[in-house]
Design a protein that fits this description.
single chain, alpha/beta, Rossmann fold, five-stranded mixed beta barrel, globular
């Protein structure tokens, strides 16, 4: 018997499927704060507003538009999530993970997760692009809690949470297109308050290189469904206590917008090689 949670996933997938015209996108791309420009690069775009999709939440955060965009990019078919759900908006981990679960239900086997993040590693200045090698889930939440959903592994292995093959591809592509690409560990916290200097010192000792308020829940849900993940963080500001200037959302949006062109070029080049 299909559970209520599974019905929401299936209902959303069946609403989206006709817009795909029978195609299964080669990749889904989740856009972080300030990266909405990438959705404008999709060719032959078909736009599906979240308001038309059962279970999808309308984002309340600046920089998150609230639509799926299906079309083409560098010869591949893509489904772009322009507008992310965050748990700090009062949402459950289940709701936050819904789009990724819907992508898997549609047959998509690769997802690119992007975000804006604070730089913990002292050499990461604003505008640095970091390939996520691993994460720390410090949100206190997990989308797999509760009854196991159809098609999901109950105890997924996260040793390869951010696919090693995709990371190698990203490094090769970055060199080919002349974009500097760092690599590090992303710490996902609940938010919405920025971290204290003491919390940043703690995260630094735990091995985190960047910190943000997204991504980890989606990565866990994707891996439970056997979907490969590639993660990219745009470092938009120094984390609290590592700079004299306090972090602000306006600063995050400004730097993300300035860096968006490079991130978009990198993602397009990666998608071309999938």
């Amino acid at each position: 018997m299909t559970s209520a949670r599974e019905q929401v996933i299936l209902g959303a997938a069946e609403t989206i499927r006709p817009a795909l015209g029978g195609a299964v996108p080669d990749v889904a791309i989740v856009l972080g704060s300030g990266l909405g420009e990438l959705a404008e690069r999709v060719g032959n775009a078909v736009r599906i507003p979240y308001a038309a999709i059962p279970g999808f939440h309308q984002p309340t955060v600046a920089g998150h538009k609230g639509e799926l965009v299906f079309g083409t990019m560098t010869g591949k078919t893509v489904l772009v999530q322009s507008g992310r759900f965050h748990m700090y908006e009062g949402l459950s981990a289940d709701t936050t993970a819904l789009p990724v679960r819907v992508f898997a239900t549609l047959g998509i086997r690769t997802v690119v997760l992007t975000n804006a993040a604070g730089g913990i590693r002292r050499t990461y200045g604003p505008g640095t692009i970091m390939l996520i090698a691993d994460h720390l889930n410090l949100t206190g939440q997990n989308p797999l809690v509760g009854s196991a959903l159809a098609g999901e592994e109950r105890f997924p292995d996260l040793n390869n949470g951010y696919d090693v093959g995709l990371r190698r591809l990203a490094r090769r592509v970055a060199v080919a297109v002349g974009i500097d690409l760092e690599a590090g560990v992303y710490a996902g916290l609940l938010g919405p308050s920025y971290e204290t200097p003491a919390e940043i010192r703690m995260l630094e000792r735990l091995g985190a290189d960047a910190v943000g308020m997204s991504t980890v829940i989606e990565a866990i849900a994707a891996r439970a469904r056997g979907v490969r993940c590639l993660g990219l963080s745009t470092i938009t500001n120094p984390a609290a206590g590592t700079s004299a200037a306090p972090p602000t959302h306006a600063e995050v949006m400004k730097v993300a917008a300035q860096t968006c062109g490079r991130v978009a070029r990198l993602i397009e080049a990666i998608v071309a090689q999938l």
